[in-house]
Amino acid sequence: MRNERDRFPTLASLKPPRVARAIAILMVAGLLGVAAFVTTVPWVQTAAASGTVVALDPLDRQQNITALVAGRIDRWYVTDGSTVKAGDPIVRIVDIDPRYLDRLAAERAQVVLEADAARQAARVAQLDVERTGTLYREGLASRREHEFAQIKVTDYRAKVAAAQGQLNRIDTNLQRQSNQLVTAPRAGRIMRVKGDDNNTILSQGAVVATFVPDQAKRVVELYVDGRDVSLVHAGRPVRLQFEGWPAIQFSGWPSIARGLFDGRVVAVDIAASSNGLYRILVEPAPGKPAWPTEPSVRLGASVRGWVLMDTVKVWFELWRLLNNFPLQYTPPPGDATTTTTTGTLAGPPPSAK
């Protein structure tokens, strides 16, 4: 070695400082460490999504309480934020005419009398038909008299039917007017009331309050990009971060994330939503910690989610991101489709995992 240095006197005269040599050694060690890291450490691929907390049953979601009859507001029994039980009164609506119910009752009594009179007249006319029929067979009455008696019976029966129809119409109006008191369909909370005064005229079906039921079974609806939704199927695990709940997320290493909750995909829409993304429904994962309850996380709260996909090496994930390829794909258990992957059509084989 000394003879070699003598042959290169310039090189022998160079004396690099110890700091430079230490930095060079650290750089080489770092490069070797990074190479070992990306080739050996596993990475969980994820499909990022965002959405909100919703109720699974449509009857448990926010709903509008409407006026069952037309009229004006007489009295409010609730305010914004009131808690109600099933059958509790919310608002009373009265007709514009305060004596409308009295007139309906009087009209009904009159129609009942007319119907009774028509029935009685029909019974008497039927006796006249039988009498003229007997006289006609004995030759003591003309055929015209017998037919005229039959026509009178038919007319009275028509009057009875018309009176019955009018009576049904009056009873329908009375039944509708009996629904002037709007009640809560079930236990829940009044979110907002329509604060109109007593002079405002409401039409039938007008919204008077907004109501949210209690004890709703909650799920999370997430919206996934169209490139990733084909790889999402029912049963895929999901990690969820709720709005206002502190969390530390490591996308590729879910085991060391903190403050996140587990879910499971239960349904995937077959058509895109109006925002161009595809909706998936996520329910709590069985055997995992329960999701935060109210008031920590309410219905409508924003949620970030990560659908857990296949596990690959770090170098493979970096290579995929640099080439903008889709996620690695493995068919779900029991799927008879081909095992050809969509994420490795232009790269390493699936065994690179």
Automatic annotation (TrEMBL):
Residues 335-346 have a biased composition (Low complexity). Signal peptide: none annotated. InterPro entries: MFP. The chain crosses the membrane at residues 21-44. It comes from the Bacteria. Keywords: Membrane, Transmembrane, Transmembrane helix. Gene3D superfamilies: 2.40.50.100, Helix hairpin bin (1.10.287.470). Residues 330-353 are annotated as: Disordered. This is RND transporter. It comes from Sandarakinorhabdus glacialis.
